[in-house]
Give the backbone structure.
Amino acid sequence: MSCCARFDGRLSDLSDTGLKIKRGGQVWPSLLWLVDLKQYTGIRLNALLDPMHLLIPAAGSGKRMGAAVNKLLLPLLGQPILAWTLQAADQASSIEWIGILSQPGDWPAIEQILAAMDLSTPVQLLQGGATRQESVYRGVEYLYNLGTVERVLIHDGARCLATPKLFDRCSAALQQVDGLIAGIPVKDTIKVAEAGPKGIQIQSTPERSRLWAAQTPQGFRLSMLWQAHREALAQGWQVTDDAALFEKLGWPVYIVEGEESNLKLTTPLDVLLAAQILQQRLGPAR
């Protein structure tokens, strides 16, 4: 399957590899098949899922948010941004353990958040690094050394609007592949540009039908992700997501349809949009 095939959600076929999705006269195998299995078999999704470990990188700053503290500690509709992320992960059927990768200076505040929440999923605080990549590597190394974890999901703490269903869709698909990301088709026309003699100059326009906007959760076979991070250390690779490490090694990474509302909160405007989305979900009572 082309990782850039656009799905329109029309189920056309059942096969040994799962449902297929039809678009433009072509049929593409779909990683979404487990999500739709219930309507054909009556099997509950959570009955099919292996328990999943989740790492949440949360060691960033609030610089682009214009805040003096970690942006995940900022309030959003009455509770910290991180609390919304934890709440969704806790409600997912597949998540059995959560590791928060953060700086020790933030641990007292995070412990207060956890104390105020009634989470059923065990949560562990792990020391993050100077970059997202280093933070994730530390979490991956911790789980790898346990010797009992086979697969892991990684989800940005700043994507607090992800739903429990998205976590479970990714967990289900990860039982079929070694690497995946949540993603949505790109709507805008994208331009590749470089500095030119009179300003920023367009170099090319990629075909939009092949472009997807990467989100999290991203999921991987743990031993392979550990190997990829070790190779990144040896080669000095710097990447912005873990899927890029798989790509550098030539390992396939697949796409599970994400959610339009799964924003990454980076600027004050993002917080305003998130508040509106949450308010709509919660209704007028909140």
